[in-house]
Amino acid sequence: MFIILEKAVLGMAFLRLLSGSIEIFAAILMLRFNSVEKALMINSSLALVGPIILILTTTIGLVGIVGDISVMKIVWILLGVAFILIGVKS
């Protein structure tokens, strides 16, 4: 018996695995350099990765369900993501 995965779900999961791998690699680099200054630099660079992954994952998910939900619901989802990004940025 084979499990058939939707392409959107597979893409979203791949991006989350990539994001987690980047986070683990960043933690290893922090330990390797053993410097607060460098750890802060690495951590700051991760601030770019999170929102990018969030936007890409949400986009893939929306493309996957675009035919199943109304345009108004898509607008609300996009507005919610925008609020998350604005809240994190502040």
TrEMBL record:
InterPro entries: Uncharacterised_YqhV. It comes from the Bacteria. Keywords: Membrane, Transmembrane, Transmembrane helix. The chain crosses the membrane at residues 12-33, 45-65, 71-88. This is Uncharacterized protein DUF2619. The lineage of its organism: Bacteria, Bacillati, Bacillota, Bacilli, Bacillales.
